[in-house]
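Help!! Second protein's tokens look totally different from the first
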Amino acid sequence: MGRSLGTFSWDRLTPFALIAPSIVLIAIFVYAFIGYTAFVSTTKWYGIVPDYTSAGLTQYTDLFGLPRFQADISNTVEFTVLFLAACILLGFGAAVLLDQHVRGTILFQNIFLFPLAISFVVTGTVWRWILNPNFGINLLLDEVHLGFLKSPWLADTRTALFGLVIAAAWQMSGFCMAMFLAGLRAIPDELREAARVDGAGEGRIFLHVILPLMRPITLSAIIILGHISLKIFDLVYVMTFGGPGFATDMPSLYMWVAVFRQNLYGRGAAIAMVLLFMVALLIIPYLIWSLRQEVER
């Protein structure tokens, strides 16, 4: 009796013992540091020497009153919208074309997925050269007698953000393509055949059968890409460093500048908490929707 009780207790404790180290590490290096950052954001810590004098929400009120941070929020919203639209449209379009099972599909898949194998730092370096006013695409336009299409690109406040969007979409549209292609190939052929038997044309099948089935994948892509765009740092750092002016400045870059160049630790912590809130605002509704879907099943 005692042996069976001991074995039963150990069997129940084994899963908890296995996940305990991960829970402890996550609690310390994720949630404890989030709590510490939240605490620092309410202090007057200016300079290298820590100053934990309480400042309430002063860091936040001062932050949102800064023209630079206001520009950062505006840039983030515009970049996110354009980035999501470009990646989803390009990825879905490529997936639809590749789903036709034409010759060379595997080669084109690899070409679309290749940018995912490199980092945003490499992508930024390459596209900074491509969009250089004196080289890259402008030189190509001159060669093909389309010089009237030349643009300063990253040197112009009106086009610099679009340059970032182009580079980011070039790298991540392949990710969307892979997701949508997997979704398209998971649709049973019986559904399409049944729609054809009912007299639906290819256009109606696409609108009323394929697109509705792509909604969960589209939502997942929006969450993942939105999370990336809200925290974008390395691409901006390499391509423009927030310039010209604050035309491409982002909260993550300003956080880095505030902490490591200006020693404004309280302000940097406040920016970090705003970023956390923005990411949570994007992810939490998705998690709630996912849980509801699981319950309904």
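Here's the second one for comparison:
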Amino acid sequence: MAAEGQVAQAIRHGLEMAAIGRWEEAISWYDRALAIDRYSREALFSKGVALINIIRYEDAVRALDVILTRDPDDTEAWLHRGICFLFMGRYSKAIPCFDQVLAKDPDNVTALNHKAASLAEISRHAEAIACFDRILTVRPQDANTWFNRGSSLDALGKNEDAVRSFHRAIALDPNDADSWFEMGNSYQKLKKHREAIRCYDKVIALEPFHIDSVSQKGKSLQALGRHEEADVQFKKAEGML
């Protein structure tokens, strides 16, 4: 069999192994392909994806860098390189990778989401919000993006705007306990304790052992001067520990 056919066959076997989650075996097949053609883009990229799946991010970056050395415009390689750095917690290195993707594909939702997550992790929330807003021009019904937008707004102290974002998330997913909880926290910061309590009650109805909601409800009751009711909540939270 010609070398080209051997490379294609090895990659095919690797993809078959990857499809059933047998990542190490997939990598061994990609390595066979690369032993014949060390610059095979498909083998390098597939190996990178497999390495990400077994949490070998540094090795994945090395495979992807070979692709980018030969083709600096390969947006898939940049995207997955950024994902590696994001998962390693190296957010400042991840962001430029996602920027490379967005320079060529400004509406790439995956790159926007990962860039926003990286920005939020290093408290660059205003820039994260700009990413979330861009996503929402493409996917206005994305409840998770409304939630993440609300979280960044809350982190900036823009609690009224955060509440509005959480409302949008809840309108799309009424049983999202996380959105109800974070909206309660935003209301609490605004000293709108009755509204906060309604949010915490909703969380508790959805997740009866949500200890943080029970405790936060106690704080809002206390702020309203309803001390006996607050004590009941604090004791209930203690019993959940």
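Reply: Different proteins will give different token patterns, so don't panic. The mean pLDDT is 97.
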